[in-house]
Structures are given as C-alpha cells and as structure tokens.
Specification:
Oligomer: single chain
Number of helices: 11
Distance between the termini: 64 Å
Strand content: 15-25%
Largest sheet: 6 strands, parallel
Order of helices and strands: HHEEHEEEHEHEHHEHEHEHEHE
CATH superfamily of the largest domain: Aldolase class I
CATH topology of the largest domain: TIM Barrel
Shape: elongated
Strand order of the largest sheet: 6-11-10-9-8-7
Number of strands: 12
Structural class: alpha/beta
Helix content: 40-55%
CATH architecture of the largest domain: Alpha-Beta Barrel
Number of domains: 2
C-alpha cells in the first residue's frame, strides 16, 4: 500500500509558477508602459519604507513571494520578514518591512498585497477547518484550484495545517464514476474491482521514488463492499451521510485492511466536525481553495526625502 500524496513545500517548481504569475501580473498593470500616476507625482529620488500590515487576525502564507516579486521587477531594496509562514498574526501586526525606491514600491504594491492576501486567506480558512476536526482526522485540499496557482495554493493549505491531495492527474490514480460510465458506454463491461486491478498494474509500471497511490470513489455502501477485496489505498466516500460514513468505517475495521477512508462532498465549517467524528481517516474540502476570502493586508508607508 502506498503511503500518502506528495506534500507541497516551497521548491523551484513552485517558484517557477510564481514567476510566471508575477510576469502576468506586471503585464496586466503596465502593458509594457509605465505607472503614469506614480511618475507624475512621485520624485524620482524619493525612497520609502513600507510595512505589509495585517488588518485582521489570520494565518500568514506566501512571504517568500515578496523577494521573488522584487527580483522579477528589478527593484533594488531590502526586505525584512517579521514573522513566518504558518504563523498567526493579529490586526495591526507588521508582516514584512520593505525599503526601496518609492516609485518602484508603489508600482508593485498591489502585486505584493494580492499574493500575500490570497495565500494567507487560504491558510486562514484551512486553519479554521483543521481546528474543527480537533485531531480526529486529516483535512485535505482538492484540485479545485485557481488555474496557474495550484502549487502556490496547495502550499498555502500546508501553511494552514492542512494536507495536500494529489497535485494533478500525473501523480496519483483516482478512479471516479465518470471513468466507469465512459468505459461501460464504450461496451467495456468494467466493474470497480476490475478497474482497481487495472490501475494497480498501471501503477506498478510507473517508475517513481514513491509508490503511486490508487484511490477509488464510491457513493454507496454496496460499492464499498465491492471494492474492499481489491484493496485500493484510499476509498473516497462521496456525499455520504454521517451514519453511512460510520457504517463504512465499521466495514473497513472488520476487514482489518490498510484501506483509508476519505469523506468528501459539500463539506463546510458547519459539518466537518460531525463528519470527523464518524471515524474516517481524512476529509477532502474543495472550499479550502475555491471559497477562501483574501486575508486583509495593507501597506503602511514611511517616506524619506
């Protein structure tokens, strides 16, 4: 049995995604021209100190984005980090202090705040979900992410104490109802158990340092009964009631298998606590990334002539 999905740390692959997003953000703001407002009213030799300040209580994520933004925009200056990713901050607390040309900082101000706000919003919401399960199980994200932002958003989930589900279609096998429906519509009479066996054969042929996880989605207890003998690594229990989840947990315990159970489908802050009490091993929550509200941060300025 495979262990778990690859967990997202800050690495070169993530930073490459970030740099592409920064370049896009610059094009959106400047379109190969200039910040005409700043050029018009700010002296060329003005320098300033700007602090990224929290306007609320929450969990910070994405502090390393600032150095990369400065590098991509060729802004020469100093950046002093005042806290750490994953740390809880309160309203009025300085997160980062930057010293550089006032013109250049004004031009990239919104870019900095957008990245910190978005990622910290995800980390903050994730921390709320994690706190509701009180250690009874693990909270996972999904692939319901912003296009281009997936690695960054999954990193933010980790900062909030959550876990990463598969990064993409390339790093795990997950058999869903549509796979079986399409196969059967093509005159291939494929059962879930057969699909898992085929997936196991495919996984065995993939050369990886880490075993490829095989997960299957079911939405009834009858389907769970069918897939247990094939021993997938994880069974996703889709939109089941808490009572059904409890029955599923009992079924797995009776088999004494190493299969992990994952609850999913419409999980909210109001329901996750009760779901976690069912005994499932993990809960996947699309809302961590698709419903997070930006964390409120601002730039407080101190100019020098």
């Amino acid at each position: 049995m495979a262990n778990d999905f690859l967990q997202r740390d800050w690495d070169l692959e993530l930073e490459d995604d970030l740099r592409q997003l920064i370049r896009l953000g610059i094009r959106e703001d400047l379109r190969h021209e200039h910040d005409w407002t700043t050029l018009a009213v700010i002296p060329a030799d003005a320098t300033g100190k700007a602090s990224v300040v929290a306007r609320d209580t929450g969990v910070i994520a994405g502090l390393k984005t600032i150095d990369v933004i400065l590098d991509e925009t060729n802004v020469a200056g100093s950046c002093s980090i005042q806290c750490a990713d994953g740390q809880t901050v309160t309203s009025g607390q300085a997160i980062v202090v930057i010293e550089a040309s006032a013109r250049e900082l004004l031009t990239i101000e919104r870019l900095i705040l957008n990245f910190i706000g978005r990622l910290s919003g995800i980390a903050t919401l994730t921390a709320q979900y994690v706190s509701h399960v009180e250690g009874r199980c693990r909270v996972y994200d999904t692939r319901k992410t912003t296009p281009g932002w997936r690695r960054l958003e999954k990193y933010a989930v980790r900062c909030g104490g959550g876990m990463n589900h598969r990064i993409g279609l390339h790093d795990a096998i997950m058999i869903k109802d549509n796979h079986l429906a399409i196969s059967n519509s093509a005159s291939v009479d494929l059962t879930m158990r057969q699909a898992i066996e085929m997936a196991r054969n495919t996984a065995a042929s993939i050369e990886r340092d880490q075993d490829v996880i095989v997960e299957v989605e079911v939405d009834t207890l009858e389907q769970l009964t069918d897939v247990i003998p094939a021993e997938p690594d994880i069974v996703l229990l889709d939109n089941m009631t808490v009572e059904e989840l409890q029955q599923a947990v009992a079924m797995i315990r009776d088999t004494n298998s190493g299969i992990e159970l994952e609850a999913s489908g419409g999980v909210t802050l109001e329901t996750i606590g009760e779901i976690s009490q069912s005994g499932v091993d993990r809960i996947s929550v699309g809302a961590l990334t698709h419903s997070a509200v930006n964390f409120d941060v601002g730039l407080d300025w101190s100019f020098r002539p």
